[in-house]
Automatic annotation (TrEMBL), chains A, B:
TM spans (from-to): 6-25, 37-55, 61-79
InterPro entries to which the protein is assigned, alphabetical: PQ-loop_rpt, SemiSWEET
GO terms under cellular component: membrane
Transmembrane as UniProt keyword: yes
Main location: membrane
Source organism of the structure: Methyloceanibacter superfactus
Organism ancestry: Bacteria, Pseudomonadati, Pseudomonadota, Alphaproteobacteria, Hyphomicrobiales
Membrane association type: Multi-pass membrane protein
Superkingdom assignment: Bacteria
Keywords: Membrane, Transmembrane, Transmembrane helix
Subcellular location: Membrane
Entry protein name: Glutathione synthetase
A molecular function GO annotation: sugar transmembrane transporter activity
Amino acid sequence: MEVFVSAIAATLTTVAFVPQAIHIIRFKETRAISLQMYVAFATGVAFWLLFGFMIWNWPMIVANAITLALALSIITMKLRYG
Amino acid sequence: MEVFVSAIAATLTTVAFVPQAIHIIRFKETRAISLQMYVAFATGVAFWLLFGFMIWNWPMIVANAITLALALSIITMKLRYG
């Protein structure tokens, strides 16, 4: 049951960033996006990834690696579109 | 060491949403923000909160309760400012 709940949670908090990335790719506009938020968030996700390796939990490693990639792509687009 | 890494991770991925909320409050503009992202993310955080209660881990409960409140406030502002 705990595995089931955490799997739903990890999936949702990871895939959530896909519509945000698509939104930016489509509209090429990021004024309302906070760069500080994504820098802090990406750093935090990198620590969750490290934690996943430390406790060797592969769903945590996979979910955080994908979230980190999505957050970094949003940062790149924010820096590009301003 | 694992507690230390997870505490840093939880703090960063929670406080990250503060500058985003402040950014919206200041500029009253949310066009670049994806509503779909925040709905999926808030739902995922609610599941992480439930998971925190199931394994009775209070830092996880506190961090996710704060993140959920911040995500819901961003959704409210997105619905208001469009």
